[in-house]
Amino acid sequence: MNNAEYVTLTRQTGLMRELQVIAHNIANAGTTGFRREGVVFAEHVKRLDGAGASLSMAHGNTRQTTMLQGALQETGGSFDMAIEGPGFFMVETARGERLTRAGAFTPNAAGELVNMDGHRLLDAGGAPIFIPPDARAIAVARDGTLSADGRPLAQIDLHAPADPTDLRREAGGLFAVERGTEPVAGAQIVQGFLEASNVEPLTEIARMIEVQRAYEQGQRFLEREDERQRNVIQTLGR
Asked: SS3 sequence, the chain?
């Protein structure tokens, strides 16, 4: 197999990964707080021992999350919250603390504020937020102060990874961070709103068509190269 075929094969693998990522983006265009993902391609060139030509390969293994703000959609829900600016809510899961932009919360049977998957929302001190069962009016100030009937209950802080490249995507709109988080300045919480996905479906569909065409072009090249090699072998074998 020559260098051109190695490059094409590795490129085809990366394009297939990108098609999968694009399909995932489109499927989550209506998911609250979803962040669009892309694939970053890189070319690696290695010089081989001897007089032979160098070996080149393309890799599409790196995924990049787009952190652009999604549109804020009004719901009127007392426990619906959207982030205006950077940062994430901190929730507690069975695997540890996770970050999320999905701000649809509701009190569970114990009165703790949880998201749609039952993960508890944490306050500035890392403790679950308890809503009194007799609370009538819930208010969340833009600085994250949560009050019930005019009495402050908790302070909701927004977090961001200490290293912006440290985010690891998980199911359910969650992100894991290995190297810790830090408070976010300049962001606000808006009560009664949810942040929509930042995926633009038409842009993703156009990109999917472009990637599909690139994949088909690479496939045709490999088929022509295979046919050429077969013809050479047949000619030399006569």
From this structure: CCHHHHHHHHHHHHHHHHHHHHHHHHHCCCCCCCCCEEEEEEEEEECCCCCCCCEEEEEEEEEEECCCCCCEEECCCCCEEEEECCCEEEEEECCEEEEECCCECEECCCCEEECCCCCEEECCCCCECECCCCCCCEEECCCCEEEECCEEEEECCCEEECCHHHCEEEHHHEEECCCCEEECCCCEEEECEEECCCCCHHHHHHHHHHHHHHHHHHHHHHHHHHHHHHHHHHHHCC
